[in-house]
Amino acid sequence: MRVFTAALWNETNAFAPFPVDLGNFTQGGLFGPGARPDSHVDGVALCQEARRRARDGAFDLIEGTCAYADPSGLIVRATYEALRGRILAELREAMPVHIVALSLHGAMHADGYDDCEGDLLARVRVLVGPGVAVGATIDPHANLSARMVDAADIIVAFKEYPHSDSDARAVETLDLLIATAEGRIRPVMRAWDSGTLGVFHTSRPPVRHFVDRMLVLEQAGEALSVSLIHGFPWSDAESSGTRTLVITDGDATRAAHLAKLLAHEAAALAPVGMEAPIPMDRAIDLALTETAGPVVLAESPDNPGGGAPGDSTSLLERLIERGVRNACLGPLWDPGAVDLAFRAGVGARLPLRLGGKAGRLSGWPLDGEAEILALDPAAVQTFEGMELAVGRAAAIRFDGVDVVVVAKACQGLSPDLFTRLGIDIASRTIVAVKSSRHYEYEFAAIARRLITLDCPGTLQLDLSAYTYRNLWRPRWPIDPVGAAPFPVTLSTETTR
């Protein structure tokens, strides 16, 4: 059996200020055939699982391009077309194949393409024909389109947010694709739209119960695979929204019934899928009342993990204005400030203009006195047992608040982002991180409390703050009353 794998991965924020070009993919991870990243990345888990199986002799593997860019704004048209062209050319050269397995995000948008994954999968299907098993893993923050469902045999989304199950979903996807190619199953996929645009935190009730139910349905043989596609609220495509996807063995009626049932349940969950964020001043008040251990404030609206620039000054400015000094914040993106810190050296004091440069939602730059506490030309932070590169970083004391400033935008994932630069977070009242959920893995063990902030930024949870042009409407919570759940209609009926 011959298996072809490739990865094309980007979470596109329609409201982020920066476009994504080939340089972003080179910086994030651009690997030619036969090359793969050494560290674990959710976006290539399927490719890595296929490589493990090929080493064990399960099949012959042909590896295509693996391309990953950190979340940001719209992808430059020529960049997407070039990467798509590379993958399709590699697939054409690899043929004949029995399986095409792709690692995709699902919310990737380029200039002129509001559904990159649907476009790529459709071209793959035309190239290989109806007899080849085509499948993909996707992030739950995908925008599941009818074109994607129509072109593929198998689509499996991560079930967990934070994404702790990418390896398990890679195993599931390959198992289903192999069973399809061998004729042991005849997969049928059906999707339903909940009529909502939700944010779901799967590690806490009631969403935890929903995820557990999906697993039970699979274990009981009710379906081959069940996925909740949360959608990415900060994209702007017709297919943006919370959808359910069910795969059965040849039973289209059963797949549609389960997808519809789960879509109604997802619509009911949407208003309580994530705890309400707390305004900055209220969150600071709560933190200051704690007497043991730091309180972690998650500056989710400025999370680079969702395409925000990471240079908002809103929270830092408020901490300074309120005279909160036993606090630290990071990582704040400002390559110019990092460069000045390295030129000045550890121990130097200098006037510094910090942050607030990317756009309106980043706030104003702050002017103050900075003391350079520590410098690291190759900083790292830990996540799930791995060290992830941060790059050039500086720890500065800025008007009394210790700030980790970075030259490359990234989200805060671990306490050692601070401690490796000499900032003792255990003694702090407030530790502020630019992240949404993934920081919880490492910070929960040391934090007295975790609080998600309601503050300005590119990833605001108040979705009414954005102007959507392509999103199918009505849709809750943007509209007071969303649409009732409805089927995602396929462009053609197939018997694959």
Explain what this protein looks like in three dimensions.
The protein is α/β, with parallel strands linked by helices. The protein has 2 domains: about 1-275, Rossmann fold (3-Layer(aba) Sandwich), CATH 3.40.50.2300; about 280-460, no CATH class. About 30% of the residues lie in helices and about 25% in strands. The protein is built from 13 helices and 19 strands. The chain has helices at about 20-30, 45-55, 75-95, 115-130, 145-150, 165-180, 205-220, 250-270, 280-290, 315-320, 335-345, 415-420, 440-445; strands at about 1-10, 30, 60-70, 100-105, 135-140, 155, 185-195, 225-230, 245-250, 280, 295-300, 325-335, 350-355, 365-385, 385-400, 400-405, 430-435, 450-455, 485. The strands form 3 sheets. It has a 9-stranded mixed sheet. α5 (about 145-150) links the parallel β5 (about 135-140) and β6. α2 packs across α6 and α3 (about 75-95) runs parallel beside α4 (about 115-130). The longest helix has 18 residues, at about 75-95. Mean pLDDT is about 95; it is low at about 490-495.
